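R.M. (postdoc): so does anyone remember the format we settled on? I'll just put the structure tokens first.
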């Protein structure tokens, strides 16, 4: 079904995978160097077109367009304003699809929406009101274009199927673009995704995506690389099908994605009234890839990603045939994911030897596409979900899709079955919509199934769980009144109705400045919108206290700063910080604040030892070896240790919340994603790496670590950072920071991106 190549390969004429360069020469009649062939990928050429450095090893990218939603755009614009923003230099689209309900926290959600509208007017942007479209569907319909690059502050910013290389990053990277600066990275590796064959009836894009995620995530095969989709199987897929696979590439931890384009994608642009935005993309005659994933579409069957990660994949048939073993495996994984905070079992979901599901949801940028919902309607037409516990909700990804579903009867078929049709909203994907009952099991065509992404709260003794599936198999399960069923088990005639896009819906409702700023507009602030607190520059020496220690194999962004109702405070840096690590380590905030007292005393010109009494013996021990460490040359703050932090969301708050609580560093074995590491750096935090075995660390939670000469080490690009765990003696420990650009070093030295731009 899926094969990962052990080495780099050549792709000849877009169809033949060749491992031996000598064979390439025989086929083409000339020697082709690896370097020459690497420049023939679609990814290389799009990056080259957007690179301003003149050096293809060290890229400095300027994007064509930017996009954010209402969890992130307030913080981004506030940061940019504090750094000198005068006008949006490129089209910047502000969507309102995460806090659309305006139901939690009083006026604050709609306050943020009005902030976004007035900023779009003042700085020359685009404002998409709530319920019109989820961020990524609007981008597909209105922003994507062949050969373009889009940067978004949401991790699922992926429009590769339409020929657009898109990346999801933390807010500070968008701030840089708003201030006319660049996105600086080393040239990423490019991994070919060779699609062959054709999906069988009943298999949908989520099935293909989950199969690829299951094969690549655990081994890091595409981590921080570009996935380039090629091969004869591409042309067998509709535009919606390709989009559905593409959006899920984020869950492999890749950097971005790009697909070859053809007449199918040309038709997509024509349907959306933008034929001029199509561009045919193909790799060159001989293209070199750093790796290759061969996918036989014909062999893929309906898949399910069991809790609590999109890579925990099985075929649905496997689950049904081996229920006891699979559920036991999930429960064992839960011991790690949930830290034993609640009792967790799925055994009660087995009814008469079958797995009973409490809830089905088709939603968002992954599931809410036109073809997915039409297929679901075909499956359930004439059937009903029953009057028991099982519920079924469908969220079209945009109002134009919703209108077409109403016109062609698909919405009626779904509603007649007992399904509830809802407006475009991302809530089910991050825990702010359709939260199931305690101990309930939900199947969703959405993007993630991390713990608590469905809205339950471990700290309140609540736990529900989510499995990811394709819309077709969710509808098949709904048709069987909640008993897990693959779509391939249903005898269905898929109608495949044609899509008609009505752009008047947006023309009549979306505010578009067409790039014209109006400086006279006053920004509308709500009482919850707060400025960032002052942040000090990196001191000469650092005293760090470890205030959280996490040994899970991977720590998600959601575990660092929960999603869901906490997002009501996303415009209030100090308010949001109160939730940091609340579902993983509830004592973290209190510990961090206690340490922060010492730094605040330093900034106020008073004695930090008076503010934090436990620091006295620590400083006394430090001064035995470093007598010069003391007044005027030292900073005090907190740090956390996690094995592999930062998987998942691009939300910068995972780092900024630590920073406003006095965090100076993270310590990790590795960072799960480039975007999380960038968030740390942009908030002035040191991205320390350790080579120590995480189960036998030389430091533990509650320990102090002294880092002498850290400022000089950053300035001088020191490879090895020598630090000392403070105990009865000073025990030396070594850290590294990995590759840092000169700009990143300067940001760390200044204390954060805001300080860097203030000068």
């Amino acid at each position: 079904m899926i094969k990962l190549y052990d080495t780099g390969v050549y792709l000849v004429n877009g169809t033949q995978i060749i491992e031996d360069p000598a064979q390439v020469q025989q086929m083409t009649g000339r020697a082709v160097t690896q370097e020459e062939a690497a420049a023939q990928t679609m990814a290389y050429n799009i990056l080259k077109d957007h690179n301003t450095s003149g050096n293809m090893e060290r890229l400095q990218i300027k994007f064509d367009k930017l996009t954010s939603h209402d969890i992130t755009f307030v913080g981004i614009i506030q940061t940019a304003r504090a750094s000198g923003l005068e006008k949006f230099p490129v089209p910047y689209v502000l969507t309102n699809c995460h806090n659309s309900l305006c139901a939690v926290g009083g006026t604050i959600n709609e306050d943020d929406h009005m902030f976004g509208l007035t900023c779009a007017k003042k700085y020359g942007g685009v404002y998409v009101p709530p319920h019109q479209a989820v961020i990524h569907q609007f981008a597909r319909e209105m922003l994507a274009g062949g050969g373009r690059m889009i940067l978004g502050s949401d991790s699922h910013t992926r429009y590769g199927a339409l020929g657009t290389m898109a990346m999801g990053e933390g807010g500070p990277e968008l701030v840089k673009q708003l201030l006319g600066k660049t996105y600086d990275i080393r040239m990423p590796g490019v991994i070919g995704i060779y699609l062959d064959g054709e999906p069988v009836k009943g298999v949908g894009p989520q099935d293909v995506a989950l199969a690829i995620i299951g094969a690549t995530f655990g081994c890091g095969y595409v981590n921080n690389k570009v996935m380039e989709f090629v091969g004869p199987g591409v042309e067998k897929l509709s535009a919606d099908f390709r989009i559905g696979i593409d959006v899920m590439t984020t869950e492999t931890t890749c950097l971005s994605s790009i697909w070859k384009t053809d007449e199918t994608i040309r038709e997509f642009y024509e349907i959306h009234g933008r034929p001029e935005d199509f561009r045919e993309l193909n790799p060159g005659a001989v293209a070199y890839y750093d790796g290759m994933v061969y996918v036989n579409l014909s062999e893929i069957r309906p898949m399910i990603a069991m809790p609590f990660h999109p890579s925990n994949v099985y075929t649905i048939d496997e689950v049904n045939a081996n229920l006891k073993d699979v559920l036991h495996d999930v429960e064992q994984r839960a011991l790690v994911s949930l830290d034993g905070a609640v009792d967790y079992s799925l055994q009660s979901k087995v009814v008469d030897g079958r797995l009973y599901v409490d809830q089905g949801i088709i939603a968002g940028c992954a599931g809410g596409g036109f073809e997915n919902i039409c297929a679901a309607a075909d499956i359930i037409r004439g059937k009903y979900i029953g009057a028991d516990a099982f519920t079924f909700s469908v969220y079209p990804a945009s109002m134009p899709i919703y209108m077409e579903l109403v016109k062609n009867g698909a919405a009626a078929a779904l509603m007649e079955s007992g399904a509830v049709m809802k407006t475009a909203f991302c809530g089910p994907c991050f825990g702010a919509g359709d939260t199931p009952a305690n101990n309930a099991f939900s199947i969703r065509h959405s993007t993630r199934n991390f713990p608590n992404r469905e809205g339950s709260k471990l700290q309140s003794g609540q736990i529900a769980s989510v499995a990811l599936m394709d819309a077709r198999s969710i509808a098949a399960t709904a048709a069987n009144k909640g008993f897990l069923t693959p779509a391939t088990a249903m005898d269905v005639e898929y109608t495949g109705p044609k899509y008609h896009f009505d752009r008047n819906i947006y023309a009549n409702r979306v505010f578009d400045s067409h790039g014209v700023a109006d400086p006279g507009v006053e920004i509308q602030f709500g009482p919850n919108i707060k400025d960032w607190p002052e942040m000090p520059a990196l001191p000469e020496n650092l005293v760090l206290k470890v205030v959280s220690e996490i040994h899970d194999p991977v720590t998600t962004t959601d575990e660092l700063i929960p999603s869901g109702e906490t997002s009501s405070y996303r415009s209030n840096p100090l308010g949001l910080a109160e939730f940091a690590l609340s579902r993983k380590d509830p004592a973290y905030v209190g510990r961090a604040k206690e340490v922060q007292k010492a730094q605040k005393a330093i900034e106020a010109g008073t004695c930090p030892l008076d503010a934090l009494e436990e620091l006295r013996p620590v400083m006394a021990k430090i001064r035995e070896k470093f007598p010069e460490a003391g007044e005027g040359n030292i900073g005090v703050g907190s740090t956390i240790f996690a094995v592999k932090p930062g998987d998942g969301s691009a939300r910068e708050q995972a780092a900024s919340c630590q920073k406003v609580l006095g965090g100076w560093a993270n310590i990790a074995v590795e960072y799960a994603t480039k975007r999380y590491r960038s968030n740390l750096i942009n908030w002035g935090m040191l991205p320390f790496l350790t080579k120590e075995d995480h189960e036998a660390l030389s430091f533990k939670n509650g320990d102090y670590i002294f880092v002498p000469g850290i400022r000089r080490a950053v300035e001088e690009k020191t490879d090895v950072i020598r630090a000392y765990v403070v105990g009865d003696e000073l025990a030396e420990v070594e850290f590294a920071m990995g590759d840092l650009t000169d700009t990143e070093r300067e940001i760390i030295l200044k204390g954060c991106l805001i300080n860097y731009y203030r000068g």
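R.M.: ...and that's the designed sequence above, right after the tokens. Also worth knowing: Residues 2-58+188-299 form a domain with the Aconitase; Domain 2 fold (CATH 3.40.1060.10). The chain has a mean pLDDT of 93.
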